[in-house]
Structures are given as structure tokens and as C-alpha cells.
Amino acid sequence: MGKSNLLTNKIKCVILFTIFISLFNFSPTSSYACSCVQPGSVEEEMNRSSAVFSGEVIEMVETNQNMFIQSSADPIAVRFKVEEWWKGHAQSEVVVHTAESSASCGFEFALNQEYLVYAQESDGQLKVSLCSKTAPLASAGNDLDELGVGEKPTEQVSLDLKKQGNTTNMMQVFIVFLVVVSLWGGIYIIRRYKNKL
Length: 197
What we know:
Distance between the termini: 13 Å
Structural class: alpha+beta
């Protein structure tokens, strides 16, 4: 009976140790496939959008870059210097969020490039999707003709993406919790094992 308990405790130690090590070595990257309906006319997309503007990308930040588990759907915050507004806040700068990859319907913006952006507000953030009519400004001539002359920004602002991205990551807190519980469980089992010897 004693040998059986000893073997069981050894197996538990090995399992806990394996789980603990896997927490540090397991960092999967999930991916998804984008599927969306083609955007409608300029008028339809204008009505559907919370903000429509043109501007230059001046900063991009991966808001989940320190997460333990990463995905192509992770959000990227994109800060624009706005040139013209057709709908929205009329600020000189604006931040939009999109998925990291086009595989997850994210729009892949490039730094220092200009775009015509159609964004929808969700959870207090402006979000851009590959499924919208958002496009590089150089290839948005037809949309610009239909939109007509926009308004110049009337409110000068300077946004800081680093402050916006400085929020606590619940996934990281959960992983730290798992590590602490695993360590505590391992120590508890080892102590019980030693006491039985």
C-alpha cells in the first residue's frame, strides 16, 4: 500500500511539473479566415460608418504584443493625422483599431501612408475592417469624387497610444495565477511525499 501511494505521488509530481513547464513553452498563434460581404456604395457605407476621414498613419501599436497567447485577430491601434473629415469628430488626430491580419478581416495599414477610412464605433472605439470601403488614398478617387470636399479638422489634439495600450492584460493575470497554483500544488505534493518517507 505504501509503495502504491508513493508511485501515485510521483506520477502527480511529474504531471504537475509537465503542466508547469508547458506554461512557459506553449505560445500558440491562432489564426482565422476572413469572410465578409463586399461593401456597399459610398452613400451606404457613409450611413453605416461612425467616422469617415482621410489621413496619414503616424503611429501603430500592437495592443496585445505582450500577451502569452497571440492571434491574427489581436487588435492593432492605428493613429492618424487627419486631413479631411466627412463624418465624425473633426479632430486633428484619431485612433482606429483593426485586427492584426487580413486573415481575421483586419485592414493592414502601413506607416506614413495615406488612407480614406470608413470606421464604425464599437465598445467606445473606432474599428476598421477589411470588409469596409477603407482604401489607400491613391486608389480611392471614385469615393473621393462622390464624397466631395470634406472639412478640415477643427479641434487640435495630440493622442498617445502608449497610454491607451497600458491596460492590465487579464490573460496574463490568469496565466500568472495558473503558474502560482501549479507551483503551490507541486510544493504541497513534494512535502507530503517527503513526510511519508
